[in-house]
């Protein structure tokens, strides 16, 4: 048997039972693919179910507020995906009458949809012969064919797309694409793949040449930056606090956080006391402060590590823009802030 036959046979016998595999509805497939970008199935599945429950069609999603969408997305990370999801829902609902583009070329025009996602939707929903190439596919192809071209290089991207396109089953592109992705996700895993019982082991170049651990090859990422965040958790006698919306582009855009002060190093209580806070929310306030966590909470993102301290600011009365502490749950916040809120428990104040 050839590569594609062995792969699809394996898939028929080993595929996971996932809800988006029981439909050709492009809305459902699009939603699952956006959620699963940079997210594993076990983490993304509950979010998929929640979105389908809250927004059963693209029209409900389009009519939701961005804040509601971000709140439902909370915890998945890479929040630009959620913002693009919402913008695309509005475009499809209000400009395309609820009809998703039915081909790779037009799907590619949707915000948040790249080569991989367009190919996945086109093949699965509309049976178009368009090969998917994601992290799982890169791993399977680089190992099986012994390809050492870096997968994140221009040459590598072109090479693997061309190879995947030459292998795809033109009679059943949906099944082939799902098969190779599933194989990479559950069998030909990054670490400890099941080579002994692999249906492709007799002709896998990486296995024959002992290259399993070194393939695929990836160029080094950009240097990770270290930042020092100081969140001002303000509380007054009326059980009010302050949340601010991050409006600038970058991490956590349009999410909410406690007022933030960045510093060039991790601050001690003595150093915090010496800060000039006249331009902060504490201006003209009489307050007492205490440090919630002596050790920095380190929150790791793809290109930066955030060393974080939470400062509890107790004041008599906060500004007019303060909200009740029991309303915090209504605002979409980053996981870092959500974890603090859960551990601090405002309700006990």
TrEMBL record:
UniProt entry tagged with the keyword DNA damage: yes
Domain of life: Bacteria
Reactions mediated catalytically: Hydrolyzes free adenine bases from 7,8-dihydro-8-oxoguanine:adenine mismatched double-stranded DNA, leaving an apurinic site
The protein's Enzyme Commission number: 3.2.2.31
SMART domains: ENDO3c
Cofactor annotation comment: Binds 1 [4Fe-4S] cluster.
Cofactor: [4Fe-4S] cluster
Keyword DNA repair found: yes
SUPFAM superfamilies per UniProt: DNA-glycosylase, Nudix
UniProt keyword terms in alphabetical order: 4Fe-4S, DNA damage, DNA repair, Glycosidase, Hydrolase, Iron, Iron-sulfur, Metal-binding
Family: Belongs to the Nth/MutY family.
NCBIfam families, per the entry: mutY
Protein role: Adenine glycosylase active on G-A mispairs. MutY also corrects error-prone DNA synthesis past GO lesions which are due to the oxidatively damaged form of guanine: 7,8-dihydro-8-oxoguanine (8-oxo-dGTP).
Protein name: Adenine DNA glycosylase
Gene (UniProt): mutY
